[in-house]
Amino acid sequence: MRLVTNEPLIKRNAAIGKYAATAGLIILIGGLAVSFFGRDNPQLQLIPFYTLIIGFILSNIGIYFSNRFVREPRADKTIEAALKGLDDKYQLYNFRLPAPHVLICPSGIFALVPKFQAGVVVWDGKRWKHKGANILLSLFGQEGLANPNAEAAAEANGVARYLAKKIGDDVPPVQAIVVFYNPNVTIEASNPPIPALHTKQLKEHIRKLPKGPTLTAEQIAKLDEALSL
């Protein structure tokens, strides 16, 4: 499999996650200290309020970037490992296209949408539910499941628009797959609108798909040129 990963972006965003989280924690602790030791000083009374807002924002920025670029297992590495062994007809682009992870292969073009939720995730025929979610976990950095179908459709549309702009209007349809990569997740989904599976199932799922419209060698060369590869 040909692998194209934006390593500089990963390093930069990992640094943002670490520094933002650290700065947020320091500011929150500083505000707490001021609230204790400066409460008799009227000029310092608003400082804890401002530090709470700034510290909260920085902490959430840190959590966002850390979840994607620091926390192990990292989504790109997990997807790469899941697809290991495929030949050069399969090309995985990490953080180089509008969707973070895009697979171009004989079966078509796929935006792979990673989800790290643990517990039980269920598609009940109308909506996704996360049975393992609670407020405590969200406070410790676990993101909500949100709407995987809408997210996957948006990422696929973004990739399709980008490809049409860079290599022409005859781009094949871009499909999406929601990929859960937490080892402690159970997926209960029967015929969801967009395929949803664990990374352990990804390689076999892709292999079983019939050949479909995909990018030609010439189009991939144009894409590589657009990406300065």
What can you tell me about this protein's structure?
By secondary structure, the chain is of the alpha/beta class. The protein has 2 domains: 68 residues; 152 residues, no CATH class. 47% of the residues lie in helices and 19% in strands. The chain is built from 7 helices and 9 strands, in the order βαααβββββααβββαα. It has a 6-stranded mixed β-sheet. A 3-stranded mixed β-sheet has the order 6-5-8, with no helix packed on it. Helix 1 packs antiparallel against helix 2. The longest helix has 31 residues. The model has no long low-confidence stretch (mean pLDDT 90).
In terms of topology, how is this protein built?
Blueprint lengths: L1 E4 L1 H31 L9 H23 L5 H8 L8 E4 L6 E5 L2 E8 L3 E5 L4 E3 L4 H5 L8 H20 L6 E7 L4 E5 L6 E3 H10 L8 H10 L3
Helix pairs in contact: 1-2
Radius of gyration: 21 Å
Beta-strand share of residues: 15-25%
How many strands, what sense, and barrel or not for the largest sheet? 6 strands, mixed
Adjacency order of strands in the biggest sheet = 1-2-3-4-7-9
Shape: elongated
Number of contiguous helices = 7
- The structure class reads alpha/beta
Number of strands: 9
The whole-number mean of residue pLDDT values reads 90
Q: How many structural units, i.e. domains?
A: 2
What is the end-to-end distance? 16 Å
Low-confidence blocks of residues: none
